[in-house]
Amino acid sequence: MDASSSPQALIGPRFKRMANAIRALSVDAINKIQTGHPGLPLGAADMATVLFTQFLKFDPKNPDWADRDRFVLSAGHGSMLMYSLGYLNGYEAMTLDDIKTFRRLGSRAMGHPEVDLEIGVEATTGPLGQGVGMAVGMALAERMMRERYGSDLVDHYTYALVGDGCLMEGISYEATALAGHWGLDKLIVLFDDNGISIDGPTSLATSENQQARFEAAGWDWQAVDGHDPEAVAAAIAKAKTTSTPSIIACKTTIGLGMPVKEGTAAAHGQPPTDAEATAARASYEWDYAPFEVPEDILADWRAAGARGSVDQAAWKARLDAADASTRDEFLGAIAGELPAGWQDIIDAVKREFAEDPKDEPTRQSSQKVMSKLIPAIPTMIGGSADLTPSNLSRPDAVRAISRDNFAGRYIHFGIREHAMAAITNGIALHKGFLPFCATFMCFSDYCRPAIRLSALMKQKVLYIMTHDTITQGPDGPTHQPVEHFATFRATPNMLSLRPADAAEVAECWELALEAEDMPVAMILTREKVPAVRSGHSEENLCRRGAYVFAEASAKAEVTLLSTGSEVSVALGAKKLLEEKGVPTRVVSMPCLSLFDKQDADYRASILGTDTLRVSVEAATVYGWEKYVGPDGLIIGLDGFGAAGMPDELMEHFGITPKAVAAAVEARLAKTKA
Amino acid sequence: MDASSSPQALIGPRFKRMANAIRALSVDAINKIQTGHPGLPLGAADMATVLFTQFLKFDPKNPDWADRDRFVLSAGHGSMLMYSLGYLNGYEAMTLDDIKTFRRLGSRAMGHPEVDLEIGVEATTGPLGQGVGMAVGMALAERMMRERYGSDLVDHYTYALVGDGCLMEGISYEATALAGHWGLDKLIVLFDDNGISIDGPTSLATSENQQARFEAAGWDWQAVDGHDPEAVAAAIAKAKTTSTPSIIACKTTIGLGMPVKEGTAAAHGQPPTDAEATAARASYEWDYAPFEVPEDILADWRAAGARGSVDQAAWKARLDAADASTRDEFLGAIAGELPAGWQDIIDAVKREFAEDPKDEPTRQSSQKVMSKLIPAIPTMIGGSADLTPSNLSRPDAVRAISRDNFAGRYIHFGIREHAMAAITNGIALHKGFLPFCATFMCFSDYCRPAIRLSALMKQKVLYIMTHDTITQGPDGPTHQPVEHFATFRATPNMLSLRPADAAEVAECWELALEAEDMPVAMILTREKVPAVRSGHSEENLCRRGAYVFAEASAKAEVTLLSTGSEVSVALGAKKLLEEKGVPTRVVSMPCLSLFDKQDADYRASILGTDTLRVSVEAATVYGWEKYVGPDGLIIGLDGFGAAGMPDELMEHFGITPKAVAAAVEARLAKTKA
Fold this sequence. Notes:
The structure is a homodimer.
Chain A: H1 13-33, H2 39-55, E1 70-73, H3 79-89, H4 96-100, H5 130-149, E2 158-162, H6 164-168, H7 170-182, E3 187-193, E4 196-197, E5 200-201, H8 210-216, E6 220-225, H9 229-239, E7 246-251, H10 266-269, H11 274-283, H12 295-306, H13 308-321, H14 324-335, H15 342-355, E8 360-361, H16 362-376, E9 380-384, H17 388-391, E10 410-412, H18 417-430, E11 434-440, H19 444-456, E12 462-466, H20 484-490, E13 495-497, H21 502-514, E14 520-523, E15 528-529, E16 547-550, E17 558-562, H22 566-579, E18 584-588, H23 592-596, H24 600-607, E19 612-620, H25 625-628, E20 633-637, H26 646-652, H27 657-672
Helix pairs in contact in A: 1-2, 1-3, 1-11, 1-12, 2-3, 2-9, 5-7, 5-18, 7-18, 15-16, 15-21, 16-21, 18-19, 22-27
């Protein structure tokens, strides 16, 4: 829908009043609760009004319409813009009551936008720059979906509204470089160019030429007066015609209408006083009570909000007319369904692993599983931050995407871990794909703000994290995760899986695919591990998070709790201990959070009662007291790793069968003494 | 020293042979151990030889000479370049034996460079992009030191060698934007422009115009043939004359000389086979045994390495001739000394706090302490990632630096948390300052890779982390740290301090300033906390990490372990419990790692024996079992926070005096039942 077919006149009092409705609601909400960020909603109301009334394709009655345009408020602190728009556009779930209780517990008008399609919020934003990355991911997903299903079913734009903060963040450069590289022409960014950040004028901290910067990344750049609706509309119309992603710098006044604060850093995050709210309303010529939107303006907004229903109905008709297999595949992809019988693949791989057990790195076992899953699960796509041959994240047959080929299923993200994770979040949010991404576990640090958002947004993103501990060896401590184990496990709503060998890898992949509404970290070794599981198990033994891997030869005196590559260390220690007459059990704990969910009896039966409990994991000792108890022994690292060959390091840090057995014996002797 | 005064001829067989000495040593070392990254040392040997023999001001006999030029190998995987240079230049601590045991445990030639001045390694690198940030920090430190002490004492360049990986990382954009903004003209980056990354040609993942990108950020750009020593020398000479930071793209062939692998991704990280090593040596016309450097070439190198001793001696003479107070101040700053009597300031602040106790946010108490410390400690400098008025990290009287004024002591980093932390690392590594930086605790995620390096490099960087939990409230879960508490505490070699009120803030600042060889996180509240400590304590009660804050009225049944703002919650719960006849102790635990270092008796005396132990902290429950034991109670968050007013949230999550008391009573009832 272009500007000419709009039901709204772009100039004159009605436009201004529509934009001022956003402003008034924002002022009122923030004034009432006395917390929030007026700067952006007041400054960006005009550009948002142009976008939402003239361009954005959406239907508040069908908020999850798959072919809607996406809009991401990357500058998430301006959340009142979203809630004002949600209410004005006619999303039933966004009520005036929510706005009146903005930022209160239980209000749908939360402090920062949290993904909630029913009110038109596509992504959780606030941590700056994330929205840029997610918008790139959505635009990429659209392009890949369009390649698969044709433009009858998939043909939409992705818009993002960003501020100076988003553009200063490193992640925004990474993401825009990729968008330019891929030529994502249906990505349009509106830059709220108000020249102000929290510390003051942006000139305090930046003198970058934004135009040159974006052009260097292959973007189209325009600059307009952000308070001139016709200029903004013309710029968006032009941006829709470019063959590259576009950014439109909209020069605005932050906090427009607030006396004194307007145009200053104080407008960013300081709520207006009652007097300021009154003065602001007066400057908008808004002669209504707080939270009142006059009927004619509301009607204008609702008409604008309703206009997408025509497109939505036409799209629905096209979907209904599509051949059944295309429709089913499309709808299944959007719903995140896996093809029937996918578990059989896992089962077959497990049987293969059992019949021909191989000592190999778990990253390699994982690649074998992926090489079976990817052909069978068409929605599975993903890539690596330039560690493909190390992460083993790309089965041979999988082709990469490029600017000229969006039929591929592998993504070369470059050395951009942070944007990789945010883009993968955007792909997941868009729906239609089951996305994965890969890097060294240690460099999950670079992805952390985006990983956190995966968990907070309940998005199923698969993080393939290889080179999982000091056994990655000679690269040294810069590349050896230590504290990361605690970070992953302490992150709410996230599954962290660390399989011990090929069989557990297959089982963990099953758990990863089964996971709902949460990201998954698949933590894998660089180095070869022995195939410790013998024979095929129908049951997924990893499902309960921990299980007895090897029973003691007699009434157990010791329980060794271990994960990943250290399960084989524990088995070696058990052998030595048993030889010395110490009956020892070995427990494999591929997923602590799943284990924590089991009932107390199960947990006690696994952890062992009346035995010395010893954890063996070549990572931070932090957190293991929960499992070994106050009298247990924790074998791990209380410092960083070191550079050396894997065997040297395991010996140095006392994580060999011999060292574990010796530590256990010493403890037992001390206890008995 | 410019090219004309060089003892080396730039063209002809001697230059080539000198550069090939780097190549041969690198090939031999990587071939022998069969792990490492030959691509960079072989590709960048020419440019490095030009830089080290013609330009770099350094003295292997005085490796910590304060006015040496700094060189940072940001592309740290090319570590054999550093070790070859170290040996060839005559750093005694870098021996051929180290090179022969490259990447083995105990070798000084570690997998990636780890800061070690005695072998010429200025910074730990490997995690890509960090070196760019640290180099910017070093260049900034130089500029600020020069402002203070004059160019007689401080006048050096900072060089960084970066690869495509560094330049794709978001942190490099953030850091280069700041370097351009500040106009750091003595910063010169050599870009090893080989067009190859691990996944293949860089064209797989990028099509950015690097020249335009750097020019947009205010840098001077040159591009030369990186194997043409005269061209490289001319470019460096020109770069030294610009009024902006400079980058020189040196077009090189990765892995030059390795058959088949040369010019391909395989050269990056695959060690040469014996046959490839032989072929490579042949291509260098290097007719020597492995690890053999002929005497004439070694002599050339040693002569080049020794040439800085003249400059060093001249500098030393200038230092000796300087007036005593300047010299003492300069040397004290470099040594990281604090002015005598600084503890008296802490003591005076503590007394003020005790005499006029105020309920205030701990970030505000911290600002009060800083406002006393900064005038008294001239080396203290720092800034915020655009959250100055929220972090309260800038006492009023402190002026900011700018391109035109490097006498200031406050740094507006813009919304660039990651570069902020890396730059702060660079300032610390440079020496001369005690640097701090600030952001919301939740956004420590953006700084994580650099925070990790602070700890690994043992650098004293003060991280001021405000808005420390759900009490930051209405911004919602995107801004509320949860798992971060576990991350900080699990990070080796880092002090995490979370004071309960103004008195503890002052004490924690004392601990922060006393800390040696480690970074410190000062974790502070946004919200007001009661002044819970009464009276003045001569002793720093926080020093042992935890102490009994309030004894029980009778033999204790319960010990409440709490930190930060939750100490007052615990005190409220104690009151309620005591009223119900349950004698209750309250322990404040501002620093778990310091507490862990105390002897067993002290720890037992604090944690309490024969009492129910209950932790109260509005953050992840992960890790508290260590302190409460298997029968204890952990009150905290097992999920993310939520948007709401602080009181609403504490009530919602059950972290109020009433809720804590009720949970304790319920547990006691269960235990007794």
